[in-house]
Amino acid sequence: MDMNGYALEVLARDHLAELRARCERQELARAATPAPGSLRVALGLALIRAGRWTLGDTERQLAPRTS
Question: Within its chain, how far is the Cα of 9 from the centroid?
Fold first, then answer.
């Protein structure tokens, strides 16, 4: 079965339009979701702050006394 050039062009144009629409939907979905590392980074920073709070002011404790 032989297809004429116009029919092939219409099929290709429709397929490209579908692919572009799918890509646009994926980009919108990706932009709406938070970054995957943001929770991990926030948790890590919170643990660092908690550790520093637990240890207290270590610079003052480690500094030599001048009296």
Answer: 37
